[in-house]
Amino acid sequence: ATEPETEVLYESTGLSRYFARNFSQNILSYQSWRDLEQDEGFDLDPDRGALRRHRVYRRLFLSPALLAEGSEDQDFLYLKNFRAMFQKDVEELLGSGLHIHKSCAVLMLNAEKNFKDTLPDQKVISGIAIQVCTELRSLVETGALTPGLDDGILIARDRLERVIDTCRERYGTGWSKEFRELTVDKLYQELISYMAGFSLLEIVNKQEIRILPPAGKVSGDYPEDFGGKKDDK
Fold it and tell me: 44, 108, 149, 200: which has the fewest C-beta neighbours closer than 10 Å?
């Protein structure tokens, strides 16, 4: 266009959303995403310098929580050792906080910031998940559930389902019509899947579920004038 003030409409091909990169070998031979990650620094030490720092940032920013993969997780130890640097970056870049615990690290986002796919959000299932976490936390405080050395809790699936039943009985009148009318099996399925997606729990097998440390970071309740059965607890 020759006119400097003329508006031009551009159509994105989709490629603008991606960064092009070269690989050291044919990626058809790769078996998992870890192979792609290792290719980034095929000629560098992956446990030193920028590669490790970038990997820790990726795990921290692209996951609901950074969970320590055992007591010798070098990335998590690196995060703990340089926590001041990471906390400073999170505050400056996101205006938020970074909470680091014995076995997990969680970004505590500023409520005034507009982020996508956060916990909590405006979805009803988000509030239900928090109610379940609150009930689990109460069971830990009363000694009914005991965390392991990694702060996780291995429980039977039907035990968690009973916790969900308790929340439904106590708070169900405050849920949306969609969730009030769900069959119990569908409610279990959707809620457990949702909580797994936010690193609140891990499905071990068909009979067992591991409650993960981030579940202890969230809790919530309805106001005192709520018409449910909160006071019957």
Answer: 149
Residues 213 and 129 in one domain: yes
Tell me if 208 is assigned to some domain. yes
CA distances for 112 relative to 64, 97, 161, angstroms: 18, 13, 34
Phi, psi of 210 (to 5 degrees): -105, 120
Distance between CA atoms of residues 49 and 150, nearest Å: 28
**Mean pLDDT over residues 219-224, rounded?**
82
In a domain, 206, yes or no: yes
Over the stretch 154-166, which tens digit does the pLDDT of each residue have? 999 999 999 999 9
* Residue 205 banded pLDDT, cuts 50, 70, 90: very high
Average pLDDT, the chain: 85
Whether 4 maps to a domain, the answer reads: no
Query: 63 is in which domain, residue-wise?
Result: 15-108
Which residues sit opposite 33 in a β-bridge?
A: none
d(CA 88, CA 68): 21
CB 105 within 8 A of CB 118: no
